[in-house]
Amino acid sequence: MPEPLAPLAFAAEIVLVLALAAAAAALLLGVPLEPARRRGRALVGPFLERQRDLALSLGLRLRSWLLLRAVCTAAGLAAGALTGVPTLTLGAAALGLVGLPWLLAGRADRRRLTMERALAGFVAEVRDLMRQSNLALDRALREAARGPAPELRHVLAPLAGDQPVATALTEVSHRARSPLADLVVTALLIARARDPMALIRVVDEVVRPLLQVSVEIQEENHATVAQQRAAALAIGVIMTLLLAAVMRVPSMQAFYLSPTGQLVLLAVFAMYLALVWAIGQVARPLRWVAWDIDALRRETEALVA
Amino acid sequence: MPDLTRALIAVAVGAAWVLVLWRLGVYTHPAVLSWQRLARLRGLADRRPLGDRLGDRLPLLRRARVETDVGRLLAIAARRESPAGWLLRTASLAGLALAAVLALDEIAVLAGQRPPLPPAAGLLAAACVALLAYARLRARASERQRALGRAVADSLPHLAVMTFHHRVPVSEALLIFARCQRDRSLHDLLAGDAWRPLVERQPDSAAQSTALEYERIGQAYAVPMFVALGAAVRRVTERGLAGQDVYTNLARASYGERLATARVAAAQAKTLIVIPMGLMIVPVLVLIGAPLVASLGGIFAR
Questions:
Q1: What is the mean pLDDT of residues A25-32?
Q2: Annotated domain spans of chain B
Q3: Smallest Cβ distance to A282: which of B154, B261, B269?
């Protein structure tokens, strides 16, 4: 005997009408509706920026980096397809897609940290050239950029060229993609058109001490992220080895080829991802403000004018 | 047992009458009434709502009011909608969740089966939708508070450098740096006085100086860096200390604090990471145990 229909349908209709009325009233009160395109751009923008960061930190172009990721995804897909288990195929493809940047992010971070440490030395050299050799800032920058530390060669290349110093400094910031480089470049952009002695004081009293602290902050950030990455990697390796061992037992392989087994595999993947997420939440590295150096150059030029 | 309804109505009406007379000040001494009128005229009286005044005496109540103040959260999160609009939208989403559960039941009933979910599940779903909307709003507000704090803290070295080279007022310099940040939070707050509505909700909110403005913004938006910047501006403008020293020291202090936070995070990560590492045993057990459980289940089913 089915349940009586009328009360339930009546209640649902009343609730629906009330909900629609509330939505209409909210629209009348001016609740903003975010266009899907803008929301999509807000999601895609940071992702592409992150990829560009990673690619440049590894010394690659964005296109090469994306191609490398595509190749790794295809390799993961092919390796997974060899097992004949659909879930494992998808999992291996996902590993190829996500695992590569995750594995290489540590190397990129280390390279950036080395560059940031060298940057402190570069600032000290510029200051010494200004104080001891009595050079103007632009000249000191070009002199220091001609024989840079190996870690800074790519970053400082624009300063060694012929383009105007302000343009070269913004290019340095674009190449470095580091908050510490932004700090140095902005300080130099603000200070370059004024008294050289004041600039030496700025370097001594503001830029160098803050750069030192910033490098230490970056080191701590790097230590935190490296620990998290090592832990997630260890869990991943153990799970992969265990899965390989399990799949060698015929009865277990038969189970994991069945629909129930596929569901269990999906659940295990989900648990692994949840653990990696939890590891990331344990401690989050401190973030810095991203500067629009071109805008800052325009603003400082307007101030000087 | 006699009927007490009329007696209770009489007591309620009497109590309401006494309350109205009390509110009208009939029982108040004329001198006190005169003082209250004078204080009102001079702006000395506390004219805040009852909830705010009670909050001064009960910190827990104040905390609860602050946490559930949707208007404040919307202003901090830089959402343009009004509290009523947000409430109506949330109510509509919760109502849709409830209607969806009821409709599911209805379809099941139409198909001649028992409803898969009790109506209480619909209410639970609606409550979950409402709670999620509130949690999302709070998360956005917290994220914007962090972004504002970061934006001010990262502008401090530049402010310090600026004081060595250019004679630009701090408010203008901060606006320049806000324009140059990719995250527009600080610029959106400072440009066009977007901060005023929330700041002016506070008592005694009339700001006569940049320092006071920054302090009020810091208090209203719960961004300590703004309060610190306001105090620094006050030291420069009112006590005559050198801007170069004050802003440089503030920048150093804020970077030092950040370093301490990073060190604590790195140290905590070492120990806290053990928890998810230990929880790894769960997927391992599932991976090994699931085929065994399935085969045992098959044996018992036979």
A1: 66
A2: 5-71, 79-141, 143-267
A3: B269
Structure-block tokens of residue B209: 């100086």
| pLDDT at position A1 | 47
Q: Tens digits of per-residue pLDDT, A256-302? A: 888 888 889 889 989 988 888 888 887 778 888 888 999 988 888 88
ipTM greater than 0.85, yes or no? no
d(CA A11, CA B96): 12
Distance from CA of A104 to the nearest CA of B (A): 21
**Helix-, strand-, coil-residue percentages of chain B, each rounded to 5:** 80, 0, 20
* Mean pLDDT of all residues in A195-203: 78
Average confidence (pLDDT) over B243-251 = 87
Those residues whose C-beta lies under 8 Å from the C-beta of residue A248, and which sit 6 or more positions away, are none
| Contact indicator for A257, B294 with CB cutoff of 8 Å | no
Predicted confidence band at B142 (pLDDT cuts at 50, 70, 90)? very high
pLDDT at B107: 83
Among B156, B259, B292, pick the best mutation site for testing chain A contact (most A Cβ within 10 A).
B259
> B282 CB near a chain A CB, below 8 Å?
yes
Q: What angle do CA A144, A145, A147 make, to 5 degrees?
A: 80
Chain A residues with CB-CB distance to B144 below 8 A = none
Q: Which residue has the tokens 């629906």?
A: A16
The count of other CB atoms within 10 Å of the CB of residue A72 is: 19
CB A262 within 8 Å of CB A87? yes
User: Phi first, then psi: what are they for B181, rounded to 5°?
Assistant: -95, 140
**What is the structure's pLDDT at A31?**
60
Q: Is the dihedral of CA A80, A90, A56, B143 positive or negative?
A: negative
CB B170 within 8 A of CB B151: no
Q: How far apart are CA A206 and CA A123, in angstroms?
A: 12
Are A199 and A130 a contacting pair, CB within 8 Å? Answer: yes
B118 at A interface, C-beta within 8 A: no
Q: How far apart are CA A1 and CA A232, in angstroms?
A: 54
Position B147 confidence tier, pLDDT thresholds 50, 70, 90: very high
* Phi-psi map region of A156: left, alpha, beta (phi>0 left; psi -120 to 50 alpha): alpha
Contacts 24+ apart (CB under 8 A), A52-55: A52/A177, A53/A108, A53/A177, A54/A101, A54/A104, A54/A105, A54/A108
User: CB–CB of B109 and A2 under 8 A?
Assistant: yes
Tokens 């790097």 correspond to what residue?
A: A222
| Cα A37 from Cα A33, distance rounded (Å) | 12
CA angle B161, A291, A205 (to 5 degrees): 20
Average pLDDT of every residue of chain B: 86
Domain ranges of chain A: 112-219+291-304
Q: Extract the tokens encoding A127.
A: 């200051």
Residue pairs spanning A and B at CB distance below 8 A: 252
Backbone torsions φ then ψ of A192, nearest 5 degrees: -70, -25
Which tokens hold the place of A46?
Answer: 């940071």
**Distance, in angstroms, between A130 CA and closest chain B CA?**
17
Residue B92 at interface with chain A, using a CB cutoff of 8 Å: yes
Subunit contact B106:A299, Cβ cutoff 8 A:
no
Segment B74-85 mean pLDDT? 87
